[in-house]
Design brief:
Blueprint: E1 4-9, H1 13-26, E2 30-36, H2 37-45, E3 52-58, H3 60-69, E4 79-86, E5 89-95, H4 98-104, H5 110-132
Antiparallel strand pairs: 1-5, 2-3, 3-4, 4-5
Length: about 130
């Protein structure tokens, strides 16, 4: 089972981060959390790694609907989006919202997951179009 929706872009890491934030915002997602894994691992255990950023994103209307369907869904919120250097490219990965349906087993979660998938796919497509020419 794949649990991500991804796009590889031909842009450097900083430009991709900026464009990803804009594409997500255009689809109604705000960034609630930000974890710089590169800096964290370097500071905590001395580990060097490629640029790797985790954004915890949320669309409030979708989160509200998901919480109405299952109060425990907060365990899976916010939706994580990873932006990471991958050789000469940058990879942007979003959690596949269908995993919420799979993990909960709740059919009532499907419409929320479908809309979240549509919005995330639109953001990734916009990003690819902007950064891949």
């Amino acid at each position: 089972m794949t649990y991500d929706r991804s796009v590889r872009v031909q842009a450097d890491f900083p430009r991709t981060v900026t464009a990803a934030r804009q594409a997500l915002a255009a689809q109604g997602f705000g960034v609630l959390t930000e974890i710089d894994m590169s800096a964290t691992l370097k500071a905590k255990i001395g580990r060097e790694m490629e640029d790797y950023l985790i954004l915890g994103v949320c669309n409030p209307q979708l989160a509200d609907r998901a919480l109405d369907a299952d109060r425990s869904i907060g365990l899976l919120l916010p939706c994580n989006v990873v932006i990471r250097a991958d050789g000469a490219h940058t990879l942007v990965q979003a959690i596949d919202p269908a995993s919420m349906v799979t993990l909960t087993g709740l059919d009532t979660m499907a419409p929320v997951a479908d809309e979240a998938t549509h919005r995330l796919d639109n953001a990734l497509a916009q990003l690819a179009e902007e950064l891949n020419g």
